[in-house]
Design brief:
- The protein is mainly alpha-helical.
- The protein has helices spanning 3-15, 20-32, 34-52, 62-74, 84-133, 141-149.
- The protein has two domains: 3-52, no CATH class; 84-149, no CATH class.
- Helix content is 77%, strand content 0%.
- The longest helix is centred in the C-terminal third of the chain and has 50 residues, at 84-133.
- The chain is elongated, with a radius of gyration of 45 Å.
Length: 151
């Protein structure tokens, strides 16, 4: 008998629900194989500890109390009032959305004006720098047209 066969039949061996011939073969194998002997020891210890667990005593009034609690929950007199936060939640959400949109518009206007102003300054500086590098006499319309067309 090999270890796989013993592992498949070990529960039946412990329960004494397998034929005696197979049981004798398993007992012989367990005597010669340490891993199967350890498996047998662990499983039989688990089975033995299960038998030692005492039954939980049920309180005789448990069912009566449970039934009463369920009746109290199902009675129509019990009305659940929503908390104040549930009532204010849509109002608060609306206020936050309006504040967010207003802040976005405000920041968008301020940033776009600053960016345009900075771009004008940067363009003027850029044109003056290129004009000095290409030996243009100034930044008049004629000089800039000459610069842009590379003539």
């Amino acid at each position: 008998m090999n270890c796989n066969q013993v592992q498949k039949n070990i529960i039946g061996y412990i329960d004494h629900s397998i034929p005696e011939v197979l049981s004798a073969d398993i007992e012989k194998h367990i005597g010669s194989c340490q891993s199967c002997a350890l498996l047998y020891k662990n499983i039989s210890a688990t089975y033995n500890s299960y038998g030692k667990v005492s039954e939980i005593e049920v309180n005789p009034f448990f069912y009566t109390r449970l039934e009463q609690k369920l009746k109290n929950k199902m009675s129509p007199e019990t009305v659940v009032e929503p908390k104040l936060s549930w009532r204010l939640q849509p109002v608060i959400s609306g206020v936050l959305i309006v504040c967010g949109i207003s802040l976005g518009i405000f920041l968008g206007k301020n940033l776009s004006v600053k960016t345009i102003a900075q771009n004008k300054v940067n363009r003027t500086e850029l044109v003056n720098t290129y004009a000095s590098e290409f030996y243009l006499t100034g930044t008049s319309e004629e000089s800039l047209n000459t610069f842009y067309t590379n003539e």
